[in-house]
Amino acid sequence: MIALRSTGEALALGAKLAGVVRPGDIIALSGPLGAGKTSIVRGLLAALGLEEEAPSPSFAIVQPYDPPEVRLPVLHVDLYRIEDASEVEELGLEDAQADSLLIVEWPERLGEEHWADALWFSLKPMPDGARGLTVRVPAAWKDRWSLT
């Protein structure tokens, strides 16, 4: 387990990810409310060129970012309010994934089997205020994962 001791460390992890992501990638972020998922995403988006702070897509469900505001197309998805897997089909994520980076918060709402190719982050608040991070690295990421 990796300890992220501050929001700055979460932002820095996201910035490092920005250096290795490419269209077609999926990053899944799992953990309770306030665990730091959006902080990692904000660091990644800032490093991809987003000038303003990225909002949490909790209410919009899907927040798209396109060049020139970022280096590559990104869909930031928050499945927290999804009640049924059929609702996700209406979002068109599978079609968009081919040419976009897909970042999914609360991926477990759809089921882990749906995200087999995702770089999967699990965050857990620790008693000392840090965030414990575990990472599941799929084959598609093995040659790129050296960020921690």
TrEMBL record:
InterPro entries for this protein: P-loop_NTPase, T6A_TsaE
A Pfam family the protein falls into: TsaE
Signal peptide boundaries: none
UniProt cross-references to Gene3D superfamilies, sorted A to Z: P-loop containing nucleotide triphosphate hydrolases
Keyword entries, A-Z: ATP-binding, Cytoplasm, Magnesium, Metal-binding, Nucleotide-binding, tRNA processing
The keyword Kinase is assigned to this record: no
GO BP of this protein: tRNA threonylcarbamoyladenosine modification
Compartments where found: Cytoplasm
Domain of life: Bacteria
A single cellular component GO annotation: cytoplasm
GO molecular function: ATP binding; metal ion binding
PANTHER family membership: TRNA THREONYLCARBAMOYLADENOSINE BIOSYNTHESIS PROTEIN TSAE (PTHR33540:SF2)
Family classification: Belongs to the TsaE family.
Record-given protein name: tRNA threonylcarbamoyladenosine biosynthesis protein TsaE
The organism of origin for this protein: Sphingomonas xinjiangensis
